[in-house]
Amino acid sequence: MAHYKAADSKHEQFRRYLEKSGVLDMLTKVLVTLYEEPEKPTSSLDFLKHHLGAATPENPETELLRLELAEMKEKYEVTIEENKKLKAKLAQYEPPQEKRAE
């Protein structure tokens, strides 16, 4: 009997933890959204993952990484264009391939 109470106590503590941290509310909201969907998705697990992922607050570090990625993509495109121009310019001064082999 004591073992039953200990397990019950742990479950109750865990339930309170989930409730206090907002997990139960979030799960309830997502499940209600799924329930109210007129056309049920083929994968309910993917639905939950998508909606739970969208509901989490944005980490400031994630936003900084997104900005850095956008900046790096822009620099990459500029570098690619510059590389093309330099290759074309270099091709003007290099002899054709056949003549170099002689």
From TrEMBL:
Coiled coil: none annotated. One of its GO terms (molecular function) is transcription coactivator activity. Transmembrane segments: none annotated. It is found in: Nucleus. InterPro entries: AMY1. Keywords: Nucleus. Belongs to the AMY1 family. This is c-Myc-binding protein-like. It comes from Octodon degus (Degu). The lineage of its organism: Eukaryota, Metazoa, Chordata, Craniata, Vertebrata.
